[in-house]
Amino acid sequence: MALDLAAIRSAHERIRPYIHRTPVLTSARLDAASGASLFFKCENFQKVGAFKARGATNAVFSLDEATAQRGVATHSSGNHAAALSRAAKLRGIAAHIVMPSNSPKVKVRAVEGYGGRIVFCEPNQRAREAACVRVIAETGATLIHPFENEQVMAGAGTVAVELLEEIPDLDLVLCPVGGGGVLCGTAVAAKTMRPGIKVIATEPAGASDAAESFQQGKLVYQEKKETIADGLLTNLGAPNFALIQRYVDDVVTVSEEAIVTAMRTIWETMKIVIEPSGAVPYAAILEDKVDFRSKRVGIILTGGNVDLDALPWMKI
Amino acid sequence: MALDLAAIRSAHERIRPYIHRTPVLTSARLDAASGASLFFKCENFQKVGAFKARGATNAVFSLDEATAQRGVATHSSGNHAAALSRAAKLRGIAAHIVMPSNSPKVKVRAVEGYGGRIVFCEPNQRAREAACVRVIAETGATLIHPFENEQVMAGAGTVAVELLEEIPDLDLVLCPVGGGGVLCGTAVAAKTMRPGIKVIATEPAGASDAAESFQQGKLVYQEKKETIADGLLTNLGAPNFALIQRYVDDVVTVSEEAIVTAMRTIWETMKIVIEPSGAVPYAAILEDKVDFRSKRVGIILTGGNVDLDALPWMKI
Question: CB pairs below 8 Å between A and B: how many?
Answer without folding.
Answer: 39
